[in-house]
Amino acid sequence: MEMAERFSYYAIAGNLIQYLTKELGEPVVAAAKHVNTWRGVSALFPILGGFIADSYLGRFNTILISTFIFLLGLILLTISVATIPLHIRPTVFYLALYIISIGEGGHKPCIQTFAADQFDEDSEEEKQRKSSFFNWWYAGIVAGASTAILVAVYVEDDVSWTIGFSLPTVMVALALVVFLLGLRGYRRSVLVGSPFTKVAQVFVAAARKRHLSENLDDIGVCQDQGEAKIRSLARTNQFSFLDKATIIDAEDESCKTRNNWRLCSVNQVEETKLILRLVPIWFSVVPFSVINAQLSTFFTKQGNSMDRSLTSKFEIPAASLQFFTGLTILTALIIYDRLFVPLISKLTGHPNGITMLQRIGVGIFTSTISMVVAALVEAKRVSVALDHGLINNPKATLPMSIFWLVPQYMLLGVSDVFAVVGMQELFYSQVREDMRSIGAAAFLTVSGIGNFLSTAVITIVQSISSKLGNQWLGDNLNQAHVNGFYLVLAALGASSLLIYIWFAKGFIYKELESEDALEDTEWGGKL
Domain for residue 144, yes or no? Predict the structure, then answer.
């Protein structure tokens, strides 16, 4: 199911800027903004989808309904390209795109979480397999995306946009049928009400008891007795102001039933702390997605101006170079899982080689390096245009192979193996069990906000450079200074890495309370 969804998404997103500029006649900068905005919206809807899944419908039902919506959007998109008159085509086309976004909003936060839920966390063997699951799940995603880049993009560029957009429609329809075949064998989580309500209760209860002492050693606190299917968390001293929500005062003792807005269990408070710990991490990884957004916008337009010929009769579609990102991810994931983890774990003593936070940090660093490499290659491309007198001819094919762009695509692939998979596992494992769809959605919104910020960065760079009399971004990339834009992104990535390291050093990982552990056991996670 997820492979089909990724195939469909990249069959559209991977070549969308080409359709907008060539078929709908949009300027390059405007098209880049539209692509980033759509990708951003597509990555924000999962917050709503995750909330609905965890609070009301359950993950399976949400997947089912959202897939039908997704399929409806794909059908409308194909119709808009095939039969809708050109003067109203943009309206119908964008409507279809955002229907697809709504469908993605329910599908994306639930499908991976639903798959991970099929592992039994009470089994040590299955817990170990779950860590590898995130690597191989991402490999499947990349396989679907890479196939789209190779097949669908080629069909769209060289055969027909209608046929190209029909392919994902057929893929999703077939995947839905296959998904339904396993209906009776799936494990489904039990709904326990709105998880946001439980978080709000902790803050309200702590605020009501803000005048009480924070020393809990000699005070009665509310334990987790009577709460079904709770995996008790070890108590931590971080965000200790919230611990007041667990104190049993005179008013609580006089009540026959517990008022959840005055008194919360230790476990409920610790689950709320999990969310607070992820907030600064979330903010510090957003610039990573700003860098990743360039892969389907300016990278593609750069390649379109370069020599794309493999033979005298065959040219590579510029967007197809994204295949090298996918190929790098697939290769690096195998190396990471089969060689890197066993080797490094012997040195570090960590079962996964390095921690999730360390993995993300390596990914952010690699993405920053990719922007430096991209800037150097772009400077070379512009110098070739200048040397051959093509600086004023944006439609000319430069005598410079498109394969010069391969290193920057590959570096982004390596960064994904570390950062993206690390974030997927972090936002799944470090939230309460009934918020895992929302945790997955939080990870996805990193990409969404990153795409919106990419649009904002483009606007700011364009505005400042225009005022200085030398526009960095424009329809004629030969006269532009895209290399300077990439260096701005590299500086943004380097700054975010420093901020990320600072926050990561203070992060405390989730730890379950052992049966014989003391209530005040604290486990501090290391970066």
Answer: yes
